[in-house]
Amino acid sequence: MKHFQLPTGEKIPALGLGTYLSPPEKIERAILSALDAGYRHIDCAAIYGNEKHIGAVLKKAFNQYPRKDLWITSKLWCDAHKPEDVLPALTRTLEDLGLDYLDLYLIHWPVALKRGVELPETREDYLTLEEVPLRTTWRAMEDCADRGIVRNIGVSNFSTKKLTALLSTAAIPPAVNQIEMHPYQQQRVQVAFAKKHDITLTAYCPLGSVGEARTTRKGCTPPPLLKHPLIMTIAKKHGSTAAQVLIAWLLKQDIVAIPKSVTPERIQENFKGSELSLDANDMRVIAELDMGARIIDGKVFTLHNSPYTFENLWDGEC
Ligand SMILES: NC(=O)c1ccc[n+]([C@@H]2O[C@H](COP(=O)([O-])OP(=O)(O)OC[C@H]3O[C@@H](n4cnc5c(N)ncnc54)[C@H](OP(=O)(O)O)[C@@H]3O)[C@@H](O)[C@H]2O)c1
C-alpha cells in the first residue's frame, strides 16, 4: 500500500475506509473485511455517531492487527471549537474508539456552533469566527498534539485563504486538509497550495458519494461519476471498474482517498483501485471533467440567518 509522509515523519496510508453514514449494524463486517482486504486506515468523526461501534470492532481487530499498524483519523465537531472544549471532545472520541491516541485529528469545518449543537436550527446555534477564531481552536489542537494523544493534526473543508491565515500563527502547521475531491471537483488551487506548503490532501466523496453535485461552476447537474461514459471507457481499457479508476486517479496525484462502503465486495474492489496505474492519456481525459461541483456544499451552515455564507465559507474557491 502506498503511503504519504507527513511533516512529523509518519506515513499515512494512501487509501482509507470512510465511515460517514455507515450504520452501526454494518460496521463490524465493513471494518473487518477492509482489514482483511489490506486497508490499514479508517476515517472517523464524532458527528458520524458511530465511533462507539467502531471502537468495539477495533477492540476485536487488535488481536490480529496491532494498533501500531493501523491509522485512525477522527474529527472535532463544530460545537467544540472553544479552546476549553477541544480536549474534552478528543477525550470522548478516544474513549468511544477505545484508543489512547489518534493518528490524525482534524478540525471538521471552519464553522463554530454552540456547545451541544449538532446541526444549526436557529441563529442562536451559531458562534462567529470572531467569537471563536480558528487560530484559538488550532492552539488547543496543538496542545493535544503536545500531549501525545494525537500524532498529527490537520483541518477539513478549509479554503487556501483560511489555511494561509492559520499557517501565519500556527506553531505546528496543519499536516492534512481533508476536502471534497473527484473528477468533477479537481481542487486545482488546493493541489498547488498543498504542494507548496507540504500539506497532504485527503479526498472525501472520492466516488461522488451517494448524492448529486448540488453546486457546480457550470450550473448543471452532471451524471453520477460511477456511470460517466469516459470513466467507464478508461475502466474497460484497464479491465477495472469505474470506482477503481476514480481511486487510482487520486493516488496518482499523491492524494489520499477514503472511499466509504459497507459492502465487502465493494470494499475489496476499491482496495484494488490502489493497485491500478492510470496512464498520461487517462489523466488528460479525466482533467477535462472538472466543473467545480460540490456534493457537500456546506449549505447546512448557511441557513437561519447564519453568519456563514457560501461565499465566506469557501472564500470563492470552487
Ligand atoms: N470531512 C468532511 O467534511 C467529509 C464529508 C463527507 C465525507 N467524508 C469522509 O469521506 C468518506 C467518503 O465520502 P462519502 O462516503 O461521502 O462518499 P464516497 O466514498 O464517494 O461514496 C460512498 C457511496 O458509494 C458507494 N460505493 C462504495 N464503493 C462502491 C463501488 N465500488 N461501486 C459502487 N458504489 C460504491 C457506497 O455504498 P455502500 O456503502 O452501500 O457500499 C456509498 O453509497 C466518508 O465516509 C467520510 O469518512 C468527510
Automatic annotation (TrEMBL):
Superkingdom assignment: Bacteria
PROSITE patterns membership: ALDOKETO_REDUCTASE_1, ALDOKETO_REDUCTASE_2
Classification lineage: Bacteria, Pseudomonadati, Thermodesulfobacteriota, Desulfovibrionia, Desulfovibrionales
InterPro entries, per the entry: AKR, Aldo/ket_reductase_CS, NAD(P)_OxRdtase_dom_sf, NADP_OxRdtase_dom
Species name: Halodesulfovibrio aestuarii
Protein's UniProt name: Aldo/keto reductase
SUPFAM superfamilies in the cross-refs: NAD(P)-linked oxidoreductase
NADP-dependent oxidoreductase domain mapped to chain residues: 22-289
Secretion signal, residue range per the UniProt entry: none
